[in-house]
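Session log. Operator J.P. requested a structure for one protein chain; no other inputs attached. Running the standard single-chain path with token output.
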Amino acid sequence: MLGREVPNVTLKTRVRDESIGGDNPFRWQDVETGPLFASGRSVVFSLPGAFTPTCTTEQCPAYERDYDALLGHGVGQVYCIAVNDAFVMYQWGRKLGVSKLRLLPDGSGDFTRRMGMLINKDHLGFGVRSWRYAMVVDDGRIVAWFEEPGINDDGADDDPYGESAPDKVLAWLAANPR
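Structure written below.
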């Protein structure tokens, strides 16, 4: 993964647009991942899904808590990407009170597939999802990679979480200033 360019795919997002009015003032907006990560330093973490236990109680809240510390190491933005649609990601962010992280919906799994991290979670009734990982991206290239051990499609894991935690990313950032 190191040195590899982040794939350029289109993510279907929803953004607030007050000109629409009504109870649902949102419009569709495509986000191209190539330009999104093309300049500066970003932290990206991916998880199996919104509203799932570890993702909701540990991983996403930890990155939200450590957001300012990550920015203090020269990171411009922190992104969470999951194989969920824009509506689910929005509601999950609201439930968690996420105000700093940017949640990116990879509803079709295109980004995750191109990253080589798309797995089958049929044993839980989830369909395809992302394996848990984090990365540091500098000017569109992956410079640090944090992947949970044991990637598999058959549920032979305990949904590991540790290697992709923000403390590991923070340690790498401290040792590798931009």
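Operator note: Residues 53-65 form the longest helix (13 residues).
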